[in-house]
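This part of the workshop introduces the protein records we will be handling. A record pairs a protein's sequence with a compact description of its fold. Backbone structure tokens are a discrete shorthand for how the chain folds in space. The question running through the whole workshop is how a given chain folds. The record below serves as our worked example for the rest of this section.
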Amino acid sequence: MTMSFLLVLFAIVSFAFGTWGRRHAATLVSPSLSDHGRHVREKSLRRGSTAFRITGVLWFLLAVVHVIMYY
């Protein structure tokens, strides 16, 4: 059961970090960049945060599979 809790913890942290990154992507980009550079960097940060959110969902699904298989 400890493994399931650990997987759920990973899921929560990954999803929360991805949500935070997506929400704050515009403020994380340096204002010294050109408009195009800021847009490209913000888009890259949003892609990364989406990957974190997807990873969070996958961690949660892995926790569910772990519970189904071993309990």
